[in-house]
């Protein structure tokens, strides 16, 4: 009896996503190491914490595959890209990685829709929402850097930014979830 509730294509695309989330975790780790080597200990801490969040995403997809009777596969991960040139480059590249990941999630949604696999479609919605948060988080980093002076930021404002990001929470609240009791 076939107990796998996932089609071969869905199982494959979900397993690719497991690898993509693992790669995202490595990218954040690698950028964190770079930030630390540049003296930005707070930003490094922030990126390391986010790396852990990417691992949590990886686990979530992996567990879903197994729950549906599929077989999760752990594949090789690509080496992280070269170090960024500066903070602006670091945050811009991070944003691009997140958009790339959002597109990968949309492919899962499209395939689940095509196959009328509503369980996977529903599961993927969590990630659609999460990616809004992930992109917003990085956009906020870019905004903060812009306020600090962008490419012309002084050492003092970069130090302040570094200290602030070291204490920043790991996630942001979504504006569309605000209500009168919780007006964020
Ligand atoms: Fe798992 Fe940053 O997306």
What does this molecule look like?
The protein is mostly helical. The chain has one domain (8-169): Ferritin, core subunit, four-helix bundle (Ferritin). The chain is 70% helix and 0% strand. The protein has helices at residues 8-37, 41-67, 87-114, 118-147, 155-167. The longest helix is centred in the N-terminal third of the chain and has 30 residues, at 8-37. The protein is elongated. The mean pLDDT is 92. Bound molecules: MU-OXO-diiron. Residues 21, 24, 54, 57, 98, 101, 134 line the site of MU-OXO-diiron.
In percent, how much strand structure appears in the residues?
Answer: under 5%
CATH superfamily: Ferritin, core subunit, four-helix bundle
SS-based class = mainly alpha
CATH fold group: Ferritin
CATH class: Mainly Alpha
Principal-axes shape call = elongated
Architecture, CATH level 2? Up-down Bundle
Low-confidence stretches: none
**Helical proportion?**
55-70%
- Kindly report how far apart the N and C termini lie: 50 Å
Strand tally: 0
Number of structurally distinct domains:
1
Biggest beta-sheet profile: none
């Amino acid at each position: 009896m076939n107990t796998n509730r996932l089609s071969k294509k869905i199982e494959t695309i979900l397993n690719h996503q497991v690898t993509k989330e693992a790669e995202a975790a490595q990218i954040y780790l690698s950028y964190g190491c770079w930030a630390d080597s540049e003296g930005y200990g707070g930003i490094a801490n922030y990126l390391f914490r986010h790396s852990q969040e990417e691992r949590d995403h990886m686990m979530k997809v992996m567990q879903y595959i197994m729950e549906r009777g599929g077989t999760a596969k752990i594949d090789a991960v690509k080496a992280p890209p070269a170090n960024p040139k500066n903070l602006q480059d670091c945050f811009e590249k991070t944003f691009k990685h997140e958009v790339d990941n959002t597109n990968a999630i949309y492919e899962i949604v499209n395939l689940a829709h095509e196959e009328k696999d509503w369980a996977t479609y529903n599961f993927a919605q969590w990630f659609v929402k999460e990616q809004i948060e992930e992109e917003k988080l990085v956009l906020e980093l870019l905004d903060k850097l812009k306020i600090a002076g962008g490419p012309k930021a002084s050492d003092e404002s970069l130090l302040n930014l570094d200290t602030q990001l070291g204490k920043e929470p790991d996630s942001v609240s979504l504006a569309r979830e605000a209500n009168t009791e919780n007006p964020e």
